[in-house]
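Researcher: We're teaching a course module on how sequence relates to structure. For the next exercise, students receive a sequence and then see the predicted structure as tokens, so they can try to spot secondary structure elements on their own. Here is the exercise chain.
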Amino acid sequence: MSAIAKEPASVQARDDLTAQGPESSGQDNPDQAHFDSDPKAQSKSVQREVARYIGQMSAELSSMARKSDFDLLAYFLEMARVEARALVRKFEHNASRPR
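Model: And here is the predicted structure for the students to work with:
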């Protein structure tokens, strides 16, 4: 959990998503769209921060799995981390392109 504290944007993304109840759709603030909602309705910054948070959590869970000799689970979690990182890079690259 220490890696999460170093990433305030990811903490904010987690808090935004978990603060929403299942009945909430994030209509008051589009950046707080519930993770069960249509991904197209979420802003790109929320999607990027969700990917960043998933990557961080996957890395921590992969480490825990590896220490417990759950090699296949650690592998899948590491693949989730790699995919999440690729998504973050894609969002960052698209955000830096001039329009």
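Model: If you want an answer key for the exercise: Residues 71-96 form the longest helix (26 residues). Confidence is low (pLDDT under 50) at residues 1-7, 20-26.
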